[in-house]
Amino acid sequence: MLQKFDNNAQPDQAASKLALLRLEMDNADIDGFIVPREDEFMGEYVPACGERLKWLTGFGGSAGIAIILKSKAALFLDGRYTLEAENYIDTESLTIVPIMQVSIHSWLSENLVSGDKIAYDPKLHSIAQIKKLSAALDKQDITLTPLDDNLIDSLWTDRPDPPNGDIHLHNDAYAGQSSSDKRDNIAAQLTTEQADALLITQPENSAWLLNIRGNDVPRTPFALSFAVLKKDASVAWFINPDRLSSDLQAHLGSDVEIIPPQDMKTYLEKLTGNVVVDPSHTPQYFKNILQDKAVEGKDPCNLKKACKNPIEIEGAKAAHIRDGAALCKFLHWLDITAPAGSVSEIDAVSYLEQCRQETGELKDLSFDTISGSGPNGAIVHYRVNNESNRTLQAGDLYLVDSGGQYLDGTTDVTRTVLIDGAPPPDMAIEAFTRVLKGHIALATARFPENTDGVALDALARAPLWAGGLDFDHGTGHGVGSYLSVHEGPQRISKGGTQALMPGMIVSNEPGFYQKGEFGVRIENLQFVTSPEKINDGQRQMMGFEVLTLAPIDKRLINVDLLVTQEREWLNNYHKQVFDTLSSLLEADTKAWLQHSCAPL
């Protein structure tokens, strides 16, 4: 099994660890210390050696930040985790604060006084974060103090070693463009912008630029590393040379210099000219080293990587067909097995992983499967473990959000299904239908160039708003090509300011969550299509083409709430699902799919 189900949170140790940290704070003469979930690479997944927040608090989610003061401590979480955290956090030692309602700087302003010093590790906070926080605290004469050594590292006596796994080339047949062409393209952009070099701090950007992949963290196939691209298209890659095979060295070529990570600081200090640093993704530590040489700007790799080329789009389609067939096998098994009351949330995860493994192409999951039945489905980013594991029961809504990593693409799909044998909870059918209406509204949207995610977010929410409902997460995130399942800069959300561009892959996943009862989410991946004229319209319009192929549970739809166009969309989508996948399925699953995809 790729996914494990141990609950390795240790909230009972939080009080003693906080006490030890406060002793270190006293020795350092500081009044507070900030502990983010991120490591120095600031990604969603961190290696075991970087899980400082989890070591201290027991919280193991993908986003969060703790602030430890002398007499109180707070754990800031977003809406995905506030409900779940109550079950795994020592709430007597740590106050859970919803970060969407209370900002970090406002909380600090209320809990610190003039003259206080709040410390941080500059390797773990971006330039933008420190600039914003410092500006807010300066007004109250509260000092933000960088530390050379992280206070937790001296306390974490059994800290794991950094990863040192295999690194392999990502063939051009999957990448669709050679590494040298990518480097030339980005270097030309640096020259145009009168920059001499680009500091690449996101490992996925180095992986994309160099056409390499690794296994340093779970679920995202990259090697944790930094790089510098110069305007002459040469690269300095800071990675342990022992990790590179002769084949990989040959793939990289003479224009890629391999430099041990311990020599990075010296290299950066000797760099001349302007060095572009992305303030949103670059740790403050690097700006401290580069000083006046650092010029803030966006890493151009992000946008280039986000706009998939035709080879990557074809790969994504192939990956989703393969993945869709595996998901249908799972959904069929679930439909005939779960009503008997013999299937647990872990059983479901295990069988779904088995279905994907049987494709022979699965490299990893793209994230740990969210497998939530009944009340657990209302926990947005619920991760089942041996303690929380629940048996699926007749009448439950079961929410399964899962995905796979394949050489040709990354998948992410959510389906909410009814476990047969009893009626669903009150309001579940209305909620499901409104979520479906929002999903269809976004899937069928047409929009001009320079339209950003904010402009589209309300389309998916409007049917929910009309019923007095909403959800506390984004409507859609970007997805990589055998890379991060959550990829920027594009997103469809209230904070999605990046214009959508052809080739971008985004999720479409409105939802609704009734605490203690059920959760609903319907998620497909889709890519942005090129602009084209609509009839005699004045402007060309872009749109979306669906990638994900799996039936949507018709048992949970109130057909009377759907307008004609929505019914037609669902019928057409289901026809596409059946026509594409049926030949890949065994007879019994094919018959089940035919019934599941029959027109409304």
From TrEMBL:
Residues 316-529 form the Peptidase M24 domain. Its EC number is 1.3.99.1. Residues 18-149 form the Creatinase N-terminal domain. Belongs to the peptidase M24B family. Pfam families: Creatinase_N, Creatinase_N_2, Peptidase_M24, Peptidase_M24_C. It comes from Candidatus Micropelagius thuwalensis. One of its GO terms (molecular function) is oxidoreductase activity. This is Succinate dehydrogenase iron-sulfur protein. Residues 540-600 form the Peptidase M24 C-terminal domain. It is an enzyme of class 1 (oxidoreductase). InterPro entries: Creatin/AminoP/Spt16_N (IPR029149), Creatinase/aminopeptidase-like (IPR036005), Creatinase_N (IPR000587), Pept_M24 (IPR000994), Pept_M24B (IPR033740), Peptidase_M24_C (IPR032416), X-Pro_aminopeptidase_P (IPR050422). One of its GO terms (cellular component) is cytoplasm. Gene3D superfamilies: Creatinase/methionine aminopeptidase superfamily (3.90.230.10), Creatinase/prolidase N-terminal domain (3.40.350.10). PANTHER family: XAA-PRO AMINOPEPTIDASE 1. Keywords: Hydrolase, Metal-binding, Oxidoreductase.
